Amino acid sequence: MITENHVSFKTAKLLKEKGFDSDTDYIYYYYESDGEWCFERFFHWDKFDDGKMLHAPTQQGALTWLTEIFGIYIDVRPDPNSTGFYLSFYKNNGSEWIQALEDDGAVYNGKTIEKEIFPRFENAMEYGLVCCLKKL
Fold this sequence. Notes:
globular, 3-stranded antiparallel β-sheet, single chain, alpha+beta
C-alpha cells in the first residue's frame, strides 16, 4: 500500500533548525501535561503555541524544500542485488555529487559508497534527509 510518509520527529526538529517554516497538515506538538511530543493533524483554527510545535511535512515536501532552498537532491533507487534501496546525493541540479555523511559517507568524491541497503524506500529517504540536514 502506498502512503504519505511524513518526516520523523528527529527530521522535523532538524528542518526547523535549518529554517523550514511552511505550514503542513501534520505537526509534532509538545504537551506539557504529558511531557511528550505527539504527532497529530494540524487544523489552522487550532490554537497551538508555535514554540511547542514542529511542522511535519511529507518526505517529498521536505525533499522539495531542500532542493529549492539549498539545491540538494536525494536520489533513492532500488538496489539491483537485493530487494532493498540505496541512496545518493546531488547538488546543483545533479551536476555534482556531495558527501552527505562524515567520514564514511554514502557518497564521496563522485563515487557511491555502499554504506547501507535500506529495506524500504521511505527508510532510505528519511536517512538521506537527516544526513543532508545535519550537513547544512
